[in-house]
Amino acid sequence: MASNRGQGGIQQLLAAEQEAQHIVNAARSAKMARLKQAKDEAEREIAEYRAHVESEFQKKVQASSGDSGANVKRLEYETAEKINHLSTEGSRISNEVVQMLLKQVTTVRN
């Protein structure tokens, strides 16, 4: 009878060990599932944040490029004005410059 009781105790221990192993395996599986879920959520949040930051960057680029378009037009206008002014001044004094150059070239010095 003692051997039956010993066998029964061993069987109970083996059954308890198997049950404990199942519990540990289930806990590991649940932990892995939670880690995977947390990783997926973190990746999704990172993607959303990255998209938000990219969107803000594109808005700033468009806003600044619109300003640079106005700057380009302003610079083109100013450049055209300066070219026009230089052409006018050049036309106005060209006869004087030609006369001065002719005088210098034709004057003989000893």
Succession of helices and strands: H
Helix fraction, binned, reads over 70%
Based on secondary structure, the structural category is mainly alpha
Q: Treating each run of at least 4 consecutive H or I residues as one helix, how many helices?
A: 1
Rg over C-alpha atoms, rounded to the nearest angstrom? 46 Å
Tell me the domain tally.
1
How far apart the termini lie comes to 149 Å
Q: What does the oligomeric state look like here?
A: single chain
Folded structure, characterized:
- The chain is an all-alpha fold and 110 residues long.
- The protein starts with a helix and ends with a helix.
- The chain is 95% helix and 0% strand.
- It contains one helix and no strands.
- It has one helix at residues 2-106.
- It has one domain.
What features would you highlight for this structure?
110 residues, mainly alpha, proton-transporting ATPase activity, rotational mechanism, hydrogen ion transport, transport, V-ATPase_G
Could you give a short description of this structure?
With 110 residues, this protein is an all-alpha fold. The protein contains 1 helix and no strands. The longest helix is centred in the middle third of the chain and has 105 residues, at 2-106.
List the helices and strands and how they pair.
Blueprint: H1 2-106
